Amino acid sequence: MVDIRPFRALTYTPKAGNPADLITQPYDKIDTAQQRAYYALSPYNFCRLILPLEENKYEIAQQRVSQWLEEQVLSKEEQPAIFVSRQKFHLDGKQYSRIGIIAALRLYPYSENMVYPHEATYKAPKADRLNMLRNVQKDLEPVFLMYQDPQAQTIHFMDEATKTEPIVEVTDALGVEHTIWKVSDPQKIQHLQAIFEQKSMVINDGHHRYESAIAYRDEMRARGNWTEEDAFNFYMCYMVPVQEEGVIVLPTHRLLKNYKLTPEVLEGFSCFFGIEEIEPTAKAIEAFLGSRVGEHAFCVYDGKKACGLTLKHDSTVYEFIEAYVSRETKVFDVIILRDIVFRQVLKTGQLDLDDTILYERWTKDALARVDSGEASMAFLVNPIPAKTVAEIAVQHELLPEKSTDFYPKLVSGLVLMDISVGEKL
Questions:
Q1: What is the pTM of this model?
Q2: Domain enclosing residue 161, as ranges
Q3: Which of 83, 125, 215, 308 is 20 to 30 Å from the Cα of 363, by its Cα?
C-alpha cells in the first residue's frame, strides 16, 4: 500500500518577481557558470537555496528560507493540497507532453518493495542532501517516480484537474512549458489516495534525495516522541504513469579523465568488439548509434578520432560481467560498458564522480568537454527505454550510476514541502 498525502505547500509569492527568474534546473544539473547566472537573475532565485555559492551553504540556505518566509517572498498554503504538474516540450522536432502528481509520499525502505531504485548511487551527493535536509527542514526538490496505470485511472484524474485554472505557468530556459494545478477537494484527494494504495513506484530521478530522506527520517525517529503523521516520514514526490508518451529517457554519455585511446587500448577493444573508425563529429556518432539500437554499440572519441564499437556475438563476453547481474540485465549497454570496456580493457577500477568520470546528456556537449581538455575520452551510448527501466527495477536489478536521464527535468522552485518538527500530514 503506497500512502500519499496532501501537504501545505510553500510557494513563491508575487513579491518574489517573475517566476521565470526564480526557477532553476535541479541542483545536480547546475554547474558553476549556471550558478552565477541564476544568482544574477534575482536575489530570490531558487539556486540560492538548493546550491548556494557561499561556503557555509547549508546554514545560508536555512537562513534564506526563514528570511524569505518572514519577508513573504515565500508563503505557506493554509489548506493541504496535491498538485498536478505538466511539462510540454519539443525533442527532435516533435512535441511531447508529460503529466504527473506532486504529493507527499510515505518513505519506504527498498526492502519493503513499495519503492524501487533502478540505479546505484554515490555517497557524496547523499551526504550533501542529508546535510541540506538537517538544516533547512524542507523538501526543496521533488523525487521523480513512475508507476503503472494501465486503466488510466490517475490519467483521468489529472485530465479533470487540467480543466481548472492553473496556479502557475512558466517556461524554463530550455523552452519547456511548466503548468501546475492545485487540487484541495478532500473527496477528490481521497479518491486518488485509494487508487495509489494499489501501486508501487520506481525512482526515475532523485535516488540520492530519496535515500537521504530515509536517513533523515531515521535520525528524527531515533530522537523519540514521533508519530506516523510527522511530515519527515514523507517526501515530496512527482509521480508519472509509465504509459505517458512524454516519459522520455535520454542517453547519459560517460567521459573519463586520465585515460588515452592508445593502439593497445584499441587492441583490447578488438577482443570484444568490431571496430569501425568513423568521422569524429556529433552527427556521425549519432548516426552510428541510431543505426545500431539493440546491437550493443558504443562510440569512443578522444578529441582527434572516433571509433564505433559493436559487441561481437560471442557468449564468452558475459564471463567478464559481474556475477551478481542477472542474465537479462547483462545485455544492457551500460553494464557492458562498465564491466568490459572500463574494468576489463581500461582497468579503471572504481570511478569517482567528478574526479575520474563525468556524465553528459548531449553528444555535442560530450565532445566539447573532451575538446576543452576537461575529459580525455568520451563514450557515447544509446538510451534505455523507460518501460525497460520500470521492468528491471521491480526485479531488484540495479544499473550503474547515472545510467538514465529522464527528460525534461522538473524545474526546481515551483513547490516546496515543510518537514519541520511538529509539521503533520
A1: 0.87
A2: 4-248+408-418
A3: 125
